[in-house]
Amino acid sequence: MTVTPRIVEVRHNILKRNDELARELRQRFQAAGVYVVSLVSSPGSGKTAFLEKTLTLLKERGRRPAALVGDLATDNDSVRLARSKAPVKQIITGTVCHLEAAMIEKALGEWDLEELDFLFIENVGNLVCPSSFDLGENLRLVLLSVTEGEDKPLKYPTIFNSADLAVVTKIDLAEAVEFDWNAAAINIQAVRPGMTVLRVSAKTGHGMGAWIDSLSSQRK
Amino acid sequence: MHELSIALGILEVTEEEVERRGGVHVEAIHLRLGPLSGVVKEALVSAWQLASEQTEFESSRLVIEDVPIAIFCSTCQAERPVQSMQRMSCVECDTPATDVVRGRELLVCALELAE
Fold it and tell me: Does the pTM exceed 0.90?
């Protein structure tokens, strides 16, 4: 006798647990009045330099930022970020190529969120894997350095589409590498219509003031 | 390779469902996958083999349905497909797509069960 399988319809988000945890985190952040920004990009696009400058400038304005930094193996990034004097914690992910909400929850540990105005989450340098995982952030930035070329958005449309804001970094090098601003803008708008694009150089500070102003307006 | 995390997620929701129903064998797990979910089908199938190994779902197949991206076009005032992932605009009138209504799915939508 053959048994015909019975098909039952269900509806489960595969990342249900991550999404639930991310929702809880978002509620905690909101209750404590912390504005949370996550950063994704390929390795070497200048996330850490951008973040170090951001932390330093916020501190100068009397704000209380902190950062969680994901990395596969080293704590080099957190050492660099600690120079800003903001609280920084490294999340070493081992072989995992992205951050998940559970890692954020664990890393927050004893931190008193009431003592913070801004929390930055630097994801592992990777333009593919982080896109599926909600971390409870308010704003997701995707960074693109001028040295990577203008067509990155077309190669990684999913991550650009999942982000809220694009930041073009290392613009002090734009001329040297003949970065085509027009093509970059067209490509970004093609994969994520309406996305705001910031242009910054952490080295010269260009564009950083406007970025800090827009952040500050999120958290009075 | 975040597909392993996704495969473990599939395992988890399927386990929950089986526990709830009791005494069933899962022949196949049906998924709905949107291109904006960030998951690569082939990688997911390999990851599933790894994740389901030595579990009661080792022999359960994955049946994956691709969900095409759909937007609500503000010009057509209707749901439309997009040109492509590289050109997120309405296929009919090329209006840029700001309202994505489908394409991010990452769902277990059905189970084939044998009692």
Answer: yes
